[in-house]
Amino acid sequence: MTQWIKRGLLYVFLIALAVVMIYPLLWMAGSSFKDNQEIFTSLSIYPTKWDFSAYPEGWKGNGRITYTKYFLNTFLLVIPTVACTVMSSTIVAFGFARFRFPFDKLLFALMLSTLLLPEQTLLVPRYLIFKRLNWLDSYKTFIIPALFATYPFFIYMMIQFIRGIPRELDESAKIDGCNAFQIFGKIIMPLSKPAMFSVIIFQFVWRWNDFFNPLIYINDIKKYPLSLALRSALDISDTVHWNRLMAMSLAAMLPPVLLYIVAQKYFVEGIATTGLKG
User: Fold this and answer.
1) What predicted TM-score, i.e. pTM, was given to this entire model?
2) Which residue has the higher pLDDT, 264 or 97?
3) Residue 245, CB-side half-sphere exposure with 13 Å CA sphere
4) What is the C-alpha separation between 267 and 259, in angstroms, rounded?
5) Torsion from C-alpha of 87, 89, 91, 96, nearest 10 degrees
6) ∠ CA 171-173-177 to the nearest 5 degrees?
């Protein structure tokens, strides 16, 4: 009986916690159907009068650039960055996990040490380098660094996963005449699919929601991603249409959520097998 009471209290606590966590999201969704006055005078999720105009009106953006352009900009920034991150991180992780070379432990320690560096400490050096290379106000500042495996967290994830793949598979492939490139392409990559999906989801969400870096490197409003476009909506006029802002914020959340739903199976498997579990 005592066990049932404890379990019941646990369920009540978890449900209450879930309600507290999800309420802001539900309120934002409901506010997209309210007018400005009702948004700030009512905490209710449901509007007294349903107004669906916020979505078509909000999609028009500032009148010159629509959210179609902002969504396209975000995909042009995020998808190549994610693809480059997955490929470069997997290749570097394969090298650390399967090969022994001079100073490999030192290089591995240096790679991990960069995880401790706050991103703000690298901001000025990166900015000066990108300015010298004439990469500012372009997506090169995101895509090309990803091509050179500049995300040690993902490298570490992939190393932990690849170390869990039996070396006997590599040895069997060598007996059959496979070289290192063939082992990587035909054995390591197919078996690393769960970890690669974890990298895809993490990097997609982080780059999709990134505000600080685009704010520094992107100046042309025609190249703004969604994070900057939503913020700029507060500055384009004296009157802020909060219902439109809520509507576009809700629309901006859909791609990461859909990606997680589609790749959830691989994501959970990848997290469980990359050394990130407790």
Assistant:
1) 0.87
2) 97
3) 17
4) 10
5) -170
6) 115
pLDDT tens for each residue of 101-136? 888 889 999 988 888 888 888 888 999 999 999 999
Query: In angstroms, rounded to a whole number, what is the distance separating the alpha carbons of residues 253 and 208?
Result: 9
pLDDT, tens digit, 9 for 90 and up, residues 69-111: 999 999 999 999 999 999 999 999 999 999 888 888 899 999 8
User: Which amino acid, 119?
Assistant: E
User: Given a cut of 70, is residue 274 above it in pLDDT?
Assistant: no
CA angle in degrees (0–180, nearest 5) for 194-198-200: 115
Distance (Å, whole) CA 91 – CA 89: 6
d(CA 76, CA 99): 35
- The contacts of residue 265 (CB under 8 Å, 6+ apart) are none
Distance CA 83, CA 147 (A): 9
Residue 57's Cβ-side half-sphere holds a number of Cα atoms within 13 Å equal to 14
Query: From residue 267, how far is each of 160, 167, 197, 254, 262 by CA, in Å?
Result: 15, 24, 6, 18, 10
CATH topology assigned to domain 62-272: MetI-like fold (1.10.3720)
What b/e readout covers 207-220, taking b as 16+ CB neighbours within 10 angstroms?
Answer: bbebeebbeebbee
Give the integer Cα–Cα distance in Å for 127 and 133.
Answer: 10
DSSP state of 216: H
Once rounded to an integer, what is the mean pLDDT over residues 213-217? Answer: 93
Cα 37 to Cα 175: distance, rounded to the nearest angstrom: 73
Residue 9 has pLDDT above 60, yes or no: yes
Q: Nearest CA to 276 among 150, 164, 118?
A: 164
